Amino acid sequence: MRPEEGGAPRHWFREKLSLVLQPTGETSPPFFSATRPEKRRRNHPYLLRRFMVDLSFSEIQRLDLSEYQNIKKMVKICCIGAGYVGGPTMAVIALKCPSIEVAVVDISVPRINAWNSDQLPIYEPGLDDVVKQCRGKNLFFSTDVEKHVSEADIVFVSVNTPTKTRGLGAGKAADLTYWESAARMIADVSKSDKIVVEKSTVPVKTAEAIEKILTHNSKGINFQILSNPEFLAEGTAIQDLFKPDRVLIGGRETPEGLKAVKALKDVYAHWVPDERILTTNLWSAELSKLAANAFLAQRISSVNAMSALCEATGADVTQVSFAVGTDSRIGPKFLNTSVGFGGSCFQKDILNLVYICECNGLPEVAEYWKQVIKINDYQKTRFVNRVVASMFNTVANKKVAILGFAFKKDTGDTRETPAIDVCKGLLGDKARLSIYDPQVTEDQIQRDLTMNKFDWDHPLHLQPMSPTTVKQVSVVWDAYEATKDAHAVCVLTEWDEFKTLDFQKIYDNMQKPAFVFDGRNIINADKLREIGFIVYSIGKPLDAWLKDMPAVA
Predict the structure, then answer these.
(1) By C-alpha distance, which of 317, 297, 311, 425 is closest to 371?
(2) pLDDT value at residue 51
(3) Residues 325-354, mean pLDDT to the nearest whole number
(4) Which ranges in 221-281 belong to alpha helices (H)?
(5) How far apart are alpha carbons 406 and 234 in whole angstroms?
């Protein structure tokens, strides 16, 4: 029973309030839990209001709430851009921070409809489960961009930053059209102070430009710009988000900037250990992303360059890379040779880095990084030339089976996949292609083979809507159908299912001599040779047949 009005001691109210407001120990202050003998549950400040209904007005007047003044309204996050970065990142934030409301917005109606359906617009292992756990609770996908941006406390911007195709810096510089448009929209619709977070990969000093746009259109509203680059690897993105090597947050080194950095750090601190959340200034964070991708791409080009030398000398690149990787100073990662690197970041970020170096009067540094891309292009050209030269120096009207089109396994992403250049090279010699990839649609493959360079990085609604069908290309949904009556098989993606195919069955249904060109070194070449195949594995000792028909890149 409640003590008589006017007779309750101050500590009685404090004890009663503690049932509602005891902190959970989480790093983000708005979230509390109620502690009772029979149960413990998550809570938030709304329960304070529900509790106070039970108190008389005079009791409320006497309450000392000073020790609870850190209670704040529920944090709202909005992410502009529902693509490969925005969608998975926000889904994991929603899962790990159930008391934060997360909205992912995009102007593409089909894409948002897909995020709200059972068939998500991107394939990523584990993503379905994360989205289904949170969608409709504290994770929302919407086309009402302005509403959610206006209501948000933190706005992530994850929009396209394609390479410019015309004008100043064409072929190298990043096109910030979509970023600038997003910044102007944020300034226009905002009615409260906001933290704006760069999630897209952008050139150094982009934050400064965006800051100027927001400041000159602020109408008295304060904006803080942070750089929070993503370091996700497609195919393992969800695990990368669950257990990141590091979370990098860059901000202004001012009181306001440091406060904004802490606010974003508090979000990640729900599940990321403090020692893995790194804070820097804005420019260091922006450059760190470009540098990380450049270093990774450099390792791939280094081992691919060695693969060409291995073929020429009879060495085995697998043995060489293993020996090199056992050196603790180097390590084994990113030392697998292949037909070339792909994905949305490596080439684009290196070109961007080259342009920044040139603009800052560093031509020697720019030339150094150009070589990483030149070796990657050389590797793809070398592969095509090996295929053509091995097959009597022509593939005209010959069926070539392409196994794998995505740039790596466990993703449906085809951006900058080496398969595009390999296929175009074979088509240029009049080959007929039969393509199978377990996650890439026929429409996407036809689109990739007909689009101009760099067009892929623009929003879908600005890409060609009805791509011209390449008549020499057929897309099938079965590896055995793709290889039936083929003269050759090219393995261009390291899907696990390709390792367990019945190659005796494939051989029996192919034209003879039957060739396998393994662009990922995932198939047992010795077993295939026993069956009767002529096999080319990148960086491995050549068959006698291949030695007699040298390929010049």
Answers:
(1) 297
(2) 44
(3) 93
(4) 237-242, 255-268
(5) 11
Query: Could you tell me if residue 327 is left (phi over 0), alpha (psi between -120 and 50 degrees) or otherwise beta?
Result: beta
Residues annotated within a binding site for NAD(+): 81-86, 106, 111, 159-163, 200-201, 234, 345-348, 415
User: What CA–CA distance (Å, rounded) separates 308 from 535?
Assistant: 16
Supply φ then ψ for residue 294, to 5 degrees: -65, -40
**Residue 180 amino acid letter:** E
Q: What is the pTM of this model?
A: 0.79
Q: How far apart are CA 538 and CA 423, in angstroms?
A: 17
Within 10 angstroms of residue 184's Cβ, the number of other Cβ atoms is 14
Distance of alpha carbon 432 from alpha carbon 514, whole angstroms: 16
Question: What's the pLDDT tens digit per position in 374-397?
Answer: 999 999 999 999 999 999 999 999
Residue type, 290: L
| Contacts (Cβ under 8 Å, ≥6 apart) of 92 | 130, 238, 241, 242
Instruction: List C-alpha distances in Å: 320 to 357, 544, 547.
Output: 33, 22, 21
Count of beta carbons in the 10 Å neighbourhood of residue 501: 16
Q: What is the pLDDT of residues 182-198, one digit of tens each?
A: 999 999 999 999 999 99
| Residue 481 vs residues 156, 399, 409, 420: alpha-carbon distances, Å | 44, 12, 20, 21
Q: In the 3-class helix/strand/coil scheme, how is 407-430 assigned residue by residue?
A: CCCCCCCCCCCHHHHHHHHHHHCC
Burial 207-239 (b: 16+ CB within 10 A, else e): bebbbebbeeeeeeeebbbbbbbbbbebbbbbe
Binding residues: 81-86, 106, 111, 159-163, 200-201, 234, 345-348, 415
298: amino acid identity, one letter? Q
Instruction: Write the DSSP string, 212-226.
Output: HHHHHT-TT--EEEE
Interhelix angle 127-134/86-96, nearest 10 degrees: 50
Residues in a beta bridge with 195 = 154, 224
Nearest to 285 by CA among 231, 332, 359, 344: 231
Q: Catalytic: 345? A: yes
* Residue in 79, 345, 423, 490 annotated catalytic: 345
Q: What share of the chain is helix, strand, coil (3-state, %, to 5)?
A: 45, 15, 40
**Best CA proximity match to 15, nearest among 76, 67, 56, 69:** 67
Interatomic CA distance for residues 299 and 457, integer angstroms: 24
d(CA 440, CA 424): 17
In which residue are the tokens 């109408």 written? Answer: 219
Per residue in 107-125, is it b (16+ CB within 10 Å) or e — as a string?
A: ebeebbebbeeeebbbbbe
Instruction: Tell me the pLDDT tens digit for each residue of 82-135.
Output: 999 999 999 999 999 999 999 999 999 999 999 999 999 998 999 999 999 999
User: How would you list the strands of the sheet with 277-281, edge to edge?
Assistant: 139-142, 101-105, 76-80, 154-157, 194-198, 223-227, 247-251, 277-281
pLDDT at 75: 86
- Between CA 308 and CA 302 the distance in angstroms is 10
Task: Express as a percent the part of the chain with pLDDT over 70.
Answer: 82
Q: Which residues have a Cβ under 8 Å from the Cβ of 322 and sit 6 or more positions away? A: 332
